[in-house]
């Protein structure tokens, strides 16, 4: 099969990026993956992927170090900008821990893309940049025209939401201003099988349900999407010439209670929350129609949960 060209994936060792790298290699791309500490054992899984020996090169890069990004991106045709801090608790120093790397980091990646004459960059944003918008009517389906309100995020101290909203809107604006083809994707909570040995924030949501045995857990709406379907979406957005602007990426909307019941019926022996609080908020509705019109499909939730649990067992994350 002919080679598809050379692409860079930032934060290659993370949960989503690992699947993106694996999929790109399986489709005969040459991949430059950026990691912060190439010698760290937590990235060893990347070098074991099929075709990694021949087609994957890891680069040491930090989002706040322009030169390191420039070196990794040079010579590539496209970039998947996936890296961003994803905190699982509230940050004590949000500017340094989240906002700086997300906003300035994305800006650095885009500058390096312009310098390397990159044909398209796919930036991973989040629905955190979509749905924190109190003026959007609750009954109206949220599509790509809905943006989180940065003042609201700031007032609620939702620093990750603020960071993703600023990073994404500035990325799209940068693209328009500099003539760089920037496409963004906004996934909901991403779950599924892990390739990496460490626990990321969204995987922790499932692990808490399976093993924490908490006295009480909040019953809330969970909008979920499989990590493999997100990786497919990123590549679709890179390859489809007609892709433009932003894309919401979501598959299933479910209450925590239903999620717990689905897991319990299949795996009765784990330590589930003992009680779920009553759920009071009105559900919100998000649409991935724009992405589906490009040909994106998602798998059933049962498959995602089964494969996720199996991977947690294999990785010793349920012990
Ligand atoms: N998982 C979700 O539910 C979800 C939903 C919507 C959007 N997203 C977005 O998807 C992307 C990937 O998230 P994930 O779930 O895969 O999280 P993850 O496993 O925590 O991956 C985040 C990656 O970002 C890298 N990173 C963080 N700060 C960096 C910095 N200053 N310089 C270089 N790299 C840095 C990390 O590198 P190290 O390995 O060196 O720490 C890691 O590889 C993020 O942009 C996130 O906002 C995630």
Provide an overview of this structure.
- Helices cover 41% and strands 15% of the residues.
- By secondary structure, it is an alpha/beta fold.
- The protein has one domain (5-191, 224-251, 283-298): NAD(P)-binding Rossmann-like Domain (Rossmann fold), CATH 3.40.50.720.
- The protein binds NADP nicotinamide-adenine-dinucleotide phosphate.
- This is Cinnamoyl-CoA reductase 12.
- Keywords: NADP, Oxidoreductase.
Summarize the SSE layout with pairings.
Layout: E1 6-9, H1 15-26, E2 30-35, H2 44-47, H3 52-55, E3 56-60, H4 66-73, E4 78-81, H5 94-115, E5 120-124, H6 150-155, H7 159-178, E6 182-187, E7 189-191, H8 201-211, E8 221-226, H9 227-239, E9 245-249, E10 252-255, H10 256-266, H11 289-293, H12 301-314
The structure holds NADP nicotinamide-adenine-dinucleotide phosphate (NAP).
NADP nicotinamide-adenine-dinucleotide phosphate binds next to helix 1, helix 5 and strand 7.
Please give the order of strands in the largest beta sheet. 3-2-1-4-5-6-9
Q: What fold name goes in the CATH topology slot?
A: Rossmann fold
Q: What's the gyration radius in Å? A: 19 Å
Q: On the 0-100 scale, what is the average pLDDT?
A: 96
What summary fits the major beta sheet?
A: 7 strands, parallel
CATH superfamily: NAD(P)-binding Rossmann-like Domain
* Assembly state of the chains shown: single chain
Query: Which consecutive residue ranges, at least 5 long each, have pLDDT under 50?
Result: none
Please tally the helical runs, counting DSSP H or I stretches of 4 or more residues: 12
Beta strand count = 10
Secondary-structure element pattern, one letter each: EHEHHEHEHEHHEEHEHEEHHH
Overall form: globular
The percentage of residues in β strands lies in: 15-25%
